[in-house]
Design goal:
- This protein is mainly alpha-helical.
- Strand 1, helix 3 and strand 2 form a beta-alpha-beta unit.
- The chain contains three helices and two strands.
- The protein is elongated, with a radius of gyration of 21 Å.
């Protein structure tokens, strides 16, 4: 069994096992149990309960990052098949197709 440090154990004791927190109380709890001397990362998982195979249940959205996307140029890669490949290329995608993406 993995052993944890005293700061981790102290933070863990402030969490109620099995409790589901709403967003506001979760943010407060995260700030309360933070103990690192740097900006920590928080991972958020959201279960949307949609069926991606059904066209009327697609989930699309945008996010504005606090410091933009950085200075590097970005590529638009579309993973699609059939007529959607041509549509993506006509819309301006840098790459489109059915193959796996590769890092650049």
């Amino acid at each position: 069994m993995k052993q944890h440090g005293k700061k981790y154990r102290a933070a863990f004791e402030k969490i109620e096992p099995g409790r589901k927190y709403n967003l506001d109380s979760a943010i407060e709890k995260i700030k309360e149990i933070s103990f690192a001397k740097f900006d920590e990362t928080v991972e958020l998982t959201v279960w949307l309960g949609v069926d991606p195979r059904k066209a009327d249940q697609l989930v699309r959205g945008t996010i504005v990052l606090p410091h933009g996307l950085g200075g590097a140029a970005k590529k638009v890669v579309v993973i699609a098949q059939g007529d959607k490949i041509r549509e993506a290329q006509e819309a301006g995608a840098d790459e489109a197709g059915r193959r796996h993406c590769r890092s650049h």
